[in-house]
Amino acid sequence: MSLARYTIRRLLQAIPVIIGILTITFYLANRIPGDPVRIMLGPEQANNPEMIEEIRAQYGLNRPLHERYVNYIFEVAQGNLGTSIHYNMPVTEVIAGRIPVTLLLMLSAFAFAIAMAIPLGIISAKRRNEPVDHISRVVALIGVSTPSFWIGLLLIIVFAFHLGWFPERGLVYPWADPESVRGAETRIDVLQMAIHHLMLPMIALGTLQMASITRIQRSSMVDTLQNDYVKLARAYGVSERRITWRHALRPSLLPVITIVGLGLSTSLGGSVLIETVFEINGLGRLIIQAINTQDYPLIMGTTFVFGFAFVIGVIITDLAYAYIDPRVSYGNAD
After folding, report:
1. Which pTM was predicted?
2. Which superkingdom heads the taxonomic lineage of this protein's source (predicted)?
3. Distance of CA 209 to CAs 180, 246, 268, 278, 283, Å?
4. Residue 331: what pLDDT?
């Protein structure tokens, strides 16, 4: 089976998963106790039955649940996630305004994790059972065992309040207009301030990924270095540097790719906590706000985006195997 056919088959297999996510999210969101219309109107207008019924009709909340479900699935298939009750604007527009912030946080966290973890895993494997290996394993164990939000709070206390090196909250967007950013005059100033603000949340969100990747990279590298073809290369006098970077690194990255792909869901969940801790207006903080205001369309829309991103991440992980290891086959056993 060719890679193109395998890609199409995986995308088709993702459709029932997406429908399952939409179905579960729809029924759970609509079973939350309370009335989003009364929350939106506030205590002064919550006792006006005519206004409540008018708004419920406006958002279709007066229709039977099964009818709303069928209509919701039909609208999502056309790219319409509904209208936010709290913001009174299309859910897609609300989410589109927050996605770049969450993507910036996640991509920077993954870049930090990969840049730190792969060299650390390789060094740890090459110097197995030496002091540097023990230190690396202890650091990885602490990183895996510590919740992201706790790391974020610790970083704020040490580096923001006591040392004053980094801001404790907020985020300057790299794409922001310099005139709208206090203290910035040029685009370079904006980028410098963005990196300065991003440093602590990036480390807080990326530490767990870094620790997981380091452990997997070390184990995979140790196994690869013990293969027969590596021993044969050593017997022919190939240098250790060439064996490590040319022959051992590439096969050892297969488990790392799996961890990176599946870590996408962990990172999405972690972004909800990190954005809350650092008061960053991203997608994670938006879903908290949607739950607090019982904004059904926004809850379903943000959850759908999270689920869709996870499914796409898994598919990309599967496809990435072909580029790393040509021995991977997408055909049937025959």
Report:
1. 0.78
2. Archaea
3. 34, 25, 12, 19, 20
4. 55
